[in-house]
Every structure is written in structure tokens, then in C-alpha cells.
Specification:
Mean pLDDT: 96
Low-confidence stretches: none
Number of strands: 31
Distance between the termini: 57 Å
Strand content: 35-45%
Bound molecules: nickel (II) ion
Largest sheet: 10 strands, antiparallel
Structural class: mainly beta
CATH superfamily of the largest domain: Copper amine oxidase, catalytic domain
Radius of gyration: 26 Å
CATH topology of the largest domain: Beta-galactosidase, Chain A, domain 5
CATH class of the largest domain: Mainly Beta
Oligomer: single chain
Length: about 625
């Protein structure tokens, strides 16, 4: 059954997903009211992978999260796929796992059918026809009410389209907030916060609804007549000196595994696993109909569950290799997202150049990067996750933020204090997007240390007579609490991951540097309800010792949780982190003060970070890149 699996970290195949479902049924763990929240690979111990064991030597195991609506109960299961045996089973009282795609759909239907909702719609908007109403499921979060802890709840945002293919987000039903029990799929009540008229605007982005499109764009084709420079075997990818496994699951979406670099014939380990572990998008408007808006896109919605099938769009150019993702719907039926992951190469300008002035010989190399990407649609918003590998050993993550703003309605003449008008009577509240990324480094082995590197200026004195001196001061981080830190512009702060046991060509420990990009700190108070569940926003950088069950920065089940889980809880133990298997966690925040140009659809915004070899290689690893084939039209 697992004969098609080439590497032990490859995601579950379609057959393996179905086998896990069938096993759980056979074991009597599935009732008519059971939802399958997720089924994913239960990853083998990393020692076995580092020992070079093949997929056939390591048993394939699946882990599943189940939820029984009848009893409001969450369960975790681990199933050995060959035997179908249950390896692990536990009930987690009081836990609300990620909402499923089926619940999104059923929640919408429940609101559309609700007599109370129809009555409220009639009262405020003069119609009880719900056929043009859009209901976006939003988790109810946790605000200390008893129902937040005892029911599976959503508090959706609703919109009224003008016609069936209109951009409905421009017509928010601002004062109406239905509260839905997802266990019974009943609207418990419709909260009314006031009356705002529907903005009288019509603005769309769909090709057939934008009449005057520009006509001066000529075709730009990317061709690779000899094919791509990568090879793919199952979910393993080889590209120039890089070698890794593409992963995917319902929770995190795209993941990278077992990333190695072939350095002159020696296969060197860099990252064992890289993943997005959580997100939170807190909104900054205190108005009662807006104040509960915050979305944990990974833990509440499932970034992988919301992934796009990229075959339908034009997301990538050039020679494209796609990978499918095999998930389940909430009743255990196979849900294959065709082409969920895109792999392709991009030209990236100049890799390096020098012209020897006396010889008048320019040497220039084009940079090529390998792109591994996935895009998710979480109701109104789109998130694209783009990992880049470069020829000079750099590794980059770029998150692309696009889609539709979460919009609200204002009265005529009303100003937006906590947001900006994007069209008359239509405003977008200020908000932030925080992403937490987990980087499990295994740099030339397991025993790694993270250093915080601050650049400091020397004091005036006999050794610094011109007062120009500054130096980089690296501090070994020895415990979890010591490692918690924010970016510092004044100190040009970076972090370095080293292996103290492995020395480079100049006698220093081999290392990779972590270079942060744009970032932010939260504007909501530490007492804000959402922050209790999002402890990962308290610091930009965290370092923990590797544990295979510490995977998500806000804990395993942030949906409706009382908070305090994840990085906050683990690091309270202040465990030692020096010369051991370490995990670096990075939180990056994008502060979004909306503007009219973000409407009706947002031009992409970017946030990310860079990993750069620093003494990992003996010299520029891209020194051996040959010149491009010369073309008569240029370069002479
Ligand atoms: Ni935004």
C-alpha cells in the first residue's frame, strides 16, 4: 500500500488517508455525528530519518483529530497503517479543534434558513430573501462567557450581494451578528448592534466586471526549452545542490522537510522541518460589532484545508511541477486538492558580477531560485506561502497577503477612527497579521546553539580615537527565557544558528544567520482576550529544545481556548537550549492600515525572512555557477 512512498516524510497518499478512515471506522471510533477534523502523517522519529532509513523500513503512521458533535468531544487518534491498529487514543475534554470546511458550508446554510435571521434582515434591510446573503464563518473565540467554554460556536460576518456574482464584501450587514452552535447547526440568536445602511457602491475585480481593462500589455513568455533543472521523485525534490521533501497537511498547509545541501559530494543537513504554525489577525476597532474580530487562520480554519487548487489560476510561470494534497472532508471522504503545491524556477536578476577594469572582462552570473509555493483562501483573505532556495545557499520565506479587506459599513458623513474609508460609507478597520514560523534546524547534526547577535558601538577612548568603531557581539542563548527577544533596530539584531562541534575553513563553528524582515509588535494590550490565546506574539524570537509534540505556537487547540498554551507554556520551564537539538520560532507581524488602493482587491503585500549561510561554506557556494548561454541580442 505504501509502495509509492519514496521518503518517510512524504505526506499521506490518498490510499493512506482512506486506510486511516477505514481503520477508525473498523475500530468503532466513528459515530454518525463524528467529524474528521484532520488526518495527516504521524512523522517518524527523526533519528530514523537521519540514519538514512528508507520509507519501506519505517512504518507509516497516521494521526487524526476527530470531533463528535453529539457529545461536544474532541479525540486524538494515531493509527498504524499497515495493521490498522490504534496506537494512541485520547479524549480531550473541553477542547474545540479547527473548524472544518463542511462546517463553513453548513453554518452558512443554518444562518440563511434561520427565521430569526430573516426577521432581522427584514427589519434592517427590508427583505427576508436570504438567497444573496453571504455568511463567512468566524470562530466565536473566547471572551470568558460560559458558552465559549461549553459549546462549539461561530459568530459569522454576513454580507448581501447585489446580484449573484457581485463582490458581496462591499455590502456588509454591519449591525447583525448571528451566533451559531456548530454542534446542532442552530442559530442561537442574532445579535443586533445598530443599523447601518448598505453602502451604495459597486466595485468589482472579476475580469468580466471590469469593463475598461488596459490594452497596452504585450505577452511575456517564460520558456524552458530544455526543461527544468530540478528532478522530482515522489515528494522529494533535487535542484542543483539542494535536496528536500515537500510536505503538506490540513493544519499548516505547505511544509518543508529534511532540507540538505550537497557540498562537494557531502550531503549536509540544514533544516529538518520548516512550517507555519499559527497566525492571528487581530482587528483594532473597539465598536461592539467589530471588537471580537480576530482570526487564527491555522488553528481555527486550517491553512491546508483552505488551500487553492492552483491548476485553475495562473499562479506560476515557466515549467511547473505540481503536487496534490490528500485530505479528508469532515465525514472521512477523500478530499484531494489537485495541484495544491507549485514548484518552479525563477530568474532572479544578478547572482554576482565583477568587471576587471584592466582586462575589461565582465564576469556576471544570473541568479536562479527554486520556488515552492501554496496559496490559501481563508474567507475574504488570501495568503500565499513562498519558500525560495537560492544558489548561494540562501533560504527565504515570503508570505504574500492579498484578497479582500474585511469591510464594515458607516453612516453617511461618519468618519472611521479605527480604520479608513475605502469608498463612501465603506470602511476597513485597522488590523495586524501575525505569523508564527517554526524552524527546526539540524545544522550538520543535532547539537546546535542559537546566538543572538547585536551590533554595538565602542565607547570613545584610546582604542577608538575617531569614534567610528562598532562590532558584532554574539551571545550564546542557553535557556528558553534568555532566548525570548524582539527585533532591535538600534542593535541591527540578528540570530545565528551554529553547530559548535563542526568547524569551518577558518576554524569557527559552521552557521546560518537568521535575518528578520519587516515586523511589528501588537497594539492590543496583553490583557486583550485574543492575546491570551496568541502568546506567540509576545516575542519575535523564541528558542526551544526539540520536542516532536511541540508543533504549534499557540498550542494544539487555540480555537475557543482559554489561552496560555503553546510557546508561553513550554518556555515557562526555561529549559536548557545550548548545544542541543533546537527549534527557532519566529513571529512576524504586518500592520495593515487600510487605504482606498486596497479596494476592491488588495495588491499583494509581503512579509518574510532570510536564512543566510555564515561560515557554513568555505567560500561563495555559487562561484561555480557557469555563465548563461550568450545571446546575440545582448552582452556584447
Ligand atoms: Ni490586512
Amino acid at each position: 500500500m505504501s509502495s509509492s512512498v519514496k521518503h518517510p516524510l512524504e505526506p499521506l497518499t490518498a490510499a493512506e488517508v482512506l486506510r486511516a478512515v477505514e481503520s477508525l471506522h473498523g475500530l468503532g471510533k466513528v459515530t454518525p455525528t463524528t467529524r474528521f477534523v484532520s488526518i495527516m502523517l504521524h512523522e517518524p522519529p527523526k533519528e530514523q530519518v537521519h540514519a538514512g532509513k528508507s520509507a519501506s523500513e519505517i512504518p507509516r503512521v497516521a494521526e487524526a483529530v476527530l470531533f463528535d458533535n453529539a457529545t461536544n468531544s474532541c479525540y486524538e487518534a494515531v493509527v498504524a497503517l499497515a495493521s490498522g491498529d490504534l496506537v494512541f487514543w485520547r479524549h480531550l475534554p473541553g477542547v474545540q479543534p479547527t473548524m472544518t470546511v463542511d462546517e463553513q458550508f453548513e453554518c452558512e446554510q443554518a444562518v440563511l434558513a434561520s427565521t430569526e435571521f430573516k426577521a432581522a434582515l427584514k427589519k434592517h434591510y427590508g427583505t427576508d430573501d436570504t438567497s444573496l446573503v453571504m455568511v463567512d464563518i468566524w470562530s466565536a473565540g473566547n471572551y470568558g462567557a460560559e458558552e465559549d467554554n461549553t459549546r462549539r460556536l461561530a459568530r459569522p460576518l454576513c454580507f448581501l450581494r447585489r446580484d449573484p456574482t457581485d463582490n458581496g464584501y462591499v455590502r456588509p450587514l454591519e449591525g447583525l451578528r448571528p451566533v451559531v452552535d456548530l454542534n446542532t447547526m442552530q442559530v442561537l440568536r442574532v445579535e443586533e448592534y445598530g443599523h447601518w445602511p448598505l453602502p451604495d457602491v459597486e466595485c468589482n475585480y472579476a475580469a468580466e466586471r471590469v469593463p475598461n481593462q488596459r490594452r497596452d500589455i504585450k505577452a511575456l513568455e517564460i520558456t524552458q526549452p530544455a526543461g527544468p533543472s530540478f528532478t522530482v521523485d515522489g515528494y522529494q525534490v533535487r535542484w542543483q545542490n539542494w535536496n528536500f521533501v515537500v510536505g503538506f497537511n490540513a493544519r499548516e498547509g505547505l511544509t518543508l522537510h529534511h532540507l540538505r545541501y550537497n557540498d562537494g559530494g557531502q550531503e549536509r543537513s540544514i533544516l529538518y522541518r520548516a512550517s507555519l504554525t499559527e497566525m492571528v489577525v487581530p482587528y483594532g476597532d473597539p465598536a461592539p460589532q467589530q471588537a471580537r474580530k480576530n482570526a487564527f487562520d491555522v488553528g481555527e480554519y486550517g491553512m491546508g484545508m483552505c488551500a487553492n487548487s492552483l491548476e485553475l489560476g495562473c499562479d506560476c510561470l515557466g515549467h511547473i511541477q505540481y503536487f496534490d494534497a490528500h485530505l479528508t472532508d469532515s465525514r472521512g471522504r477523500l478530499l484531494t486538492v489537485k495541484n495544491a503545491i507549485c514548484l518552479h524556477e525563477e530568474d532572479f536578476g544578478i547572482l554576482w558580477k565583477h568587471t576587471d577594469r584592466r582586462l575589461n572582462v565582465p564576469e556576471v552570473r544570473r541568479s536562479r531560485r527554486l520556488v515552492i509555493s501554496s496559496v490559501s483562501t481563508v474567507e475574504n483573505y488570501e495568503y500565499g506561502f513562498f519558500w525560495y532556495l537560492y544558489q548561494d545557499g540562501n533560504i527565504q520565506l515570503e508570505v504574500k497577503l492579498t484578497g479582500i479587506l474585511s469591510l464594515g459599513a458607516l453612516n453617511p458623513g461618519e468618519h472611521a477612527v479605527y480604520g479608513n474609508l475605502v469608498a463612501p460609507q465603506l470602511y476597513a478597520p485597522n488590523h495586524q497579521h501575525f505569523f508564527n514560523v517554526r524552524l527546526d534546524f539540524d545544522l550538520d547534526g543535532l547539537a546546535n546553539t542559537v546566538q543572538q547577535v547585536d551590533v554595538v558601538a565602542d565607547e570613545q577612548g584610546p582604542n577608538n580615537p575617531f569614534e567610528n568603531a562598532f562590532r558584532a557581539v554574539a551571545t550564546n542563548l542557553s535557556t528558553e527565557k534568555q532566548a525570548c527577544a524582539n527585533l532591535s533596530l538600534e542593535r541591527a539584531r540578528t540570530w545565528k544558528i551554529i553547530n559548535p562541534e563542526v568547524r569551518n575553513s577558518v576554524g569557527e563553528p559552521v552557521g546560518y544567520k537568521f535575518l528578520p524582515g519587516d515586523n511589528a509588535t501588537p497594539f492590543a494590550s496583553p490583557n486583550a482576550w485574543w492575546r491570551k490565546r496568541a502568546g506567540f506574539v509576545n516575542h519575535h524570537v523564541w528558542v526551544t529544545p526539540y520536542r516532536d509534540d511541540e508543533r504549534y505556537g499557540a498550542g494544539d487547540y487555540p480555537n475557543q481556548s482559554a489561552g496560555g498554551d503553546g510557546l508561553i507554556r513550554w518556555t515557562a520551564a526555561d529549559r536548557p537550549i545550548q548545544s542541543t537539538d533546537v527549534v527557532l520560532w519566529y513571529t512576524m507581524g504586518h500592520t495593515h492600515i487600510p487605504r482606498p488602493e486596497d479596494y476592491p482587491v488588495m495588491p499583494t503585500a509581503y512579509i518574510g525572512f532570510l536564512l543566510k549561510p555564515v561560515g557554513f561554506f568555505a567560500m561563495n557556494p555559487a562561484n561555480d555557477v557557469p555563465p548563461s548561454a550568450k545571446k546575440k541580442s545582448c552582452c556584447h
